[in-house]
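Annex B. Sample input.
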Amino acid sequence: MENSSQVSASELVRDFFTDDSDEFIDRAVQFNQLMMKYNSAIREVKTKLEILNDELSLRGESNPIESIQSRIKKPISIAKKLKKMGKPLTVESIFENLNDVAGIRVICPFIEDIYRVSEMLEAQDDVTVITIKDYIKNPKPNGYRSYHMIVEIPVFFSRYKQPMRVEVQIRTVAMDFWASLEHQLKYKNECPETIQIVQELKECADVIAQTDEKMQQLRHRIHCDK
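Annex B, continued. Sample output.
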């Protein structure tokens, strides 16, 4: 027997696709083409970040990027988000209404590196910053901290170019570790300890923030000693 979440997912898939085989194939082709474009946009942004990191390394400066991860939002997550927004479940609607289908996560050693990376990316003349949400200076109530950017970048194909949007999340190693654990909690069923766990996670977020600040101060002292 399907559980409620499985039924919901099945219903969303049925809404997105159709019983007509020709239309089904056409929609599937359009969807795959759009996902290819998002994957191409991810490669463009990742390459920019890697080049900037390599350049600083060659200049003898510290690397502001520890690692870069990427993902494409899953079809069921796309469908659920459009449904929640009250938007039609079509390929055109995905492109017009969602800014986070393509995602890149940049992990930095220190808080100041986060802002350095964001400034370097924003300075690229073919990158347009659409929105910025600074959850480091303004953490979410649950303690979540990260720096979010929606950027638009032109992607060149064989016969045309198309502006594509990518969500870039920039955070420290400690922030990422916390966010991974908090993400696991979201997908667990309610249990008697949930409220307590949420509170303890918030306390951990505050400790992590203090630790990130302290580590940055120590870094400055080490550099001054040199």
